[in-house]
Structure formats: structure tokens, C-alpha cells
């Protein structure tokens, strides 16, 4: 694949991608992951690549993230293409030949693939700009992993005047060359919760002289696992997971404080409210039973992601020209692209990135998104941009 000039039809356009350059870009980005709102080197690298290809970079006064614009040869609609750019605090153990050079950080969600694909599409769209009617904004968005990047980008004015937006996420459950896009819900809404217990600490030999929180916390953790199974409809997909536990620091002291954190995932507003309210009720009831107090913090991180029905159908109808269209397998992962979708018409796609038996999932230290998925992702961006301009025009 290295150095090969590949060409295919995408939505009536001839798309050629210099894979040698893109593989070099992907390797560099994979080796230099950065955390949310601190993607300074990644932003600088992306900015320089865009400028090298004659693409206009815009200043939106954000510390990280890159925003660029391609003007067509004639006036027309205004659309945007988005890729997320942040990594995760994960120590890499993957089979990828170019491991992260930033110890303890990794592109464990494949955002290096997304950046590379949007760059590849930008290069191609820039070459064909005279044949385009309209404006294409390129949004390399920071801080998707913490669910705050899309909002920051919108507050900076990045989607002013934009009539439609398209984005992707690589999905290792699909093979390279496969795409899932359509009108069904694609990614779950996401909430973060934290529970802090306040009790009376005491000597471990005299537990009756205190109201230690450890037993109450254990009861709470087990009880919360019935919230979905005994409250949510069995015909709805929902998840409540406890992911972090804190309590005590000395072997012979019953602590006065303890707590745990976790996440809830859902596809409807009804289930979001149900999970939140049942969690609070259970914590309050168990706290009272143990004679302690508790605080519950609930933060809505992202909304369920559903693409615009008309535009998603339009794009899906043309996927067969350059990839294999697949049925959407909804993901319980969250995605703040949903924030854009609540403001303007949006199209989102899963791009197959592995599909091998026994592959590792997103956020795993062993996650591996295959290079072979990059051409398909580039073609999706390029084809979708042209189709949206034509349709909206």
C-alpha cells in the first residue's frame, strides 16, 4: 500500500489518495497523543500540513484544535467536516509498529485515524476546489474524550453559517472497507456520576464507635447494578457501570470518607432521567439505613447520537460506490458530535477499522485500528462533502 496511488469513484468524483503521505501522517500522530484541550503539538502539526497543501487555516482563538476552510470555485452551500484529535491516558500495548512516544498516553480510540482521514480528504477537496460550489469548513476538534470539545468549538463560532456537518468514528467491529451510516441511533448518551459518603471514622478495633462508610458503599455498589435490570424496559438499551472506587488509606482505621464513580449510557431522555433518579433514590435510602450521609453528583456528558434522517439516507444511498454499506450496530460509547447534531443537520458514520476475530475494543491499551481503513474514511469524507454541497445547493 505504501507509495501507491489509489483511485476510486466516490459520489461521481474521482478520488485519489497518496497513501504513502497519509501513512506517514498517521504514524506521527499515533506516536504523539495528547490529552483533551492540550493537543498543542498535534494542532501545530495539522496546521502545517494544511498550509503545505495551500489550505486556508482560520484562527478561532482556542488553545488547541485546528479550523480551516476550502472555498469552491463558485458560490453555494456551507458545510463542515469534523474529526476529533485528543488521546487518552492509557499506556500503549498494541501491535501497531509505531508506539506512542508520550509515556502513559495513547490514541486508544483511533483519533489518529480520524485526523489522518480528514487531512487526506482536505488535500483531495483542495485539488478539486474549482469544481465545487460552496464552502467546506474543516474542524479538527479538541477534547472529545471529555465531552466538552464540541461545545467549546461552537462557542468559538466554528459552525456559524454551516448548514450541515459530517463526522466519523472508526469502529473495530467492522472490517476495513465497510461503512455503517443511516437513520438509527448510533451512539449512546453518556453521563458521569460520583458518590461521596460522609461518616464517622473510628479505630478499626472499635467499629461500633463510628459509622464507617465501607459497608454502605459495598451495598450501594451492588444495589446500583439492579437499576437497569429492574427498572429500565428490557426493550431499551441502557448501562450503568461503576468504574472507580476510593476509601481508606490506613489498615487499622475505619475512614470517615469513601466514594465511587461511574457512568450511565442510554438512548432516550426517558432512560436518562430514570437512571439518574433511581441512582439518587438508592443512594439516599441506603445512606439513611446505615446512618451516614451521601452526595450524588450527576453530569450529562453527551446526548444520544442520531443522524439527520434525510441527509443520512442520501449519504447511505451512495456508500456502495466506494465501500460496503453495513447495518448499524449501536454503540454504548458516547460521542460529543451529538452536540453538533442538536444544532444543525448532521451525518455520522462508523468506518470499519479491524474486524479480526478477537480484536481489542476502543480504549483498550491493545486497541489496533488498521491502516487499511484510512482510504475508506477519506472517501467517505470526500464523497459526503460533494453530495452535501450538491444536495443543499
Automatic annotation (TrEMBL):
So what EC number does this one have? Answer: 3.5.1.47
Transcription keyword on record: no
Q: By its UniProt entry, which InterPro entries does this protein fall under?
A: Amidohydrolase, Bact_exopeptidase_dim_dom, Peptidase_M20, Peptidase_M20_dimer
List, in alphabetical order, the Gene Ontology terms for molecular function in this entry. metal ion binding; N-acetyldiaminopimelate deacetylase activity
Co-factor: note: The Mn(2+) ion enhances activity.
Coiled-coil blocks = none
Q: Which UniProt keywords apply?
A: Hydrolase, Manganese, Metal-binding
Cofactor(s) recorded in Swiss-Prot or TrEMBL: Mn(2+)
Output the SUPFAM superfamilies linked to this UniProt entry: Bacterial exopeptidase dimerisation domain, Zn-dependent exopeptidases
Domain Peptidase M20 dimerisation residue range list: 189-284
Q: Which residues are listed for Mn(2+) binding in this entry?
A: 109, 111, 145, 169, 363
The record's annotation in Gene3D superfamilies points to: 3.30.70.360, Zn peptidases
Q: Looking at the keywords, is Hydrolase present? A: yes
List GO BP terms, alphabetically: diaminopimelate biosynthetic process
Q: List, alphabetically, the NCBIfam families matched.
A: amidohydrolases
Protein name according to UniProt: N-acyl-L-amino acid amidohydrolase
Q: Which organism is it from?
A: Bifidobacterium psychraerophilum
